[in-house]
Specification:
Structural Genomics Hypothetical 15.5 Kd Protein In mrcA-pckA Intergenic Region, Chain A; 10 helices; 9-stranded mixed sheet; 2 domains; Pseudouridine synthase
Length: 364
Amino acid sequence: MKTTNRQSPNKPFNKLQKRTPFRAPAKKKTLPVRTEAAPAPAAAGIDVSVTEKLQKVLAEAGLGSRRDMEALIATGVVTVNGDVAKVGDRVHANDSIRVKGRLVKRAVKTDDVPQVLLYHKPAGEIVSADDPQGRPTVFDHLPRLAGGRWIAVGRLDFNTEGVLLFTDSGQLANLLMHPRYRIEREYAVRVQGELTEEAKEKLLKGVKLEDGIASFSRVEDIGGVSSNHWYRVTLAEGRNREVRRTFEAVGLTVSRLIRVRFGAVLLPKDLPRGAKMLLGSDWVKGWIEDLKAGRERAGVVPQAAQTSQAPLRTGKAKAGMGANKGGRKFASRKDVYDKGYEGLAESKRRANKRVGRTSAPRGR
């Protein structure tokens, strides 16, 4: 009698066949060893043929400005696919970037408008996240930013007050700080003494400093009493202590310095020292468009001022206009600078009353 297989009755039983419900162990597949030198495959829709400068990518990731990132790369703590990076290196979309061993999360490019924070910096604070001397820092007063960090747009000296901008976009920070964009900065300056006409001419034509020629595009007399005199000056650079050193070059010492405007952003009349405000997204979007187009209303130095010397201005300064906070005016009176913009300009309610009076028909 023939013995048949229980599972297959029609087939004869093979004594060599194992009677077991378990399958034979599968052979282990040898997976390819993946090293960091081999970049990860690009996601669908990403063009890996396009490269960007490493410092730009790091800035867009919210690690700091491009200038700060260049200094960071030079220290040798940044690697690309396991290799130490150099300033000027270009990276692909699928390259692995690490800073001090930590993987950098690349910024996802969207059409979202960057956030811009205006801070009224008081004297006695340093524009740095970490100070070895333990002095108060402006970053102690900023709100927390989810998924990023605030980048300071330029710096102000320890004893300088006024407009200080922060943004969460490294690209916007670079746009506002790069010398080629010629963003105007306006300062109220109190000096010990008074400018002569000859000294004013020098400030407009340019004086020689250690790091090159420095000049103001405008110099306006605001007034003063006794040995203290106020001026309002405009320039399109952000070199270290430039305003103070420029006045020292003509023999005057700056005793107080307030930045009242950065580009189209003016110091609001009702924003006290140490206070902050977030600029409207619609206004920021329009400002960025104007900056890229080089329009004067964005706070860019006029073309005429770049190609020729600015005429000497005398007399009282006129009030400027700012687009932030609905286009408020800021006063140019001397007492505003003396007391630091606190409680001197009209409130919104008084301003509305004034507008109502001017628009009402006059009686005969």
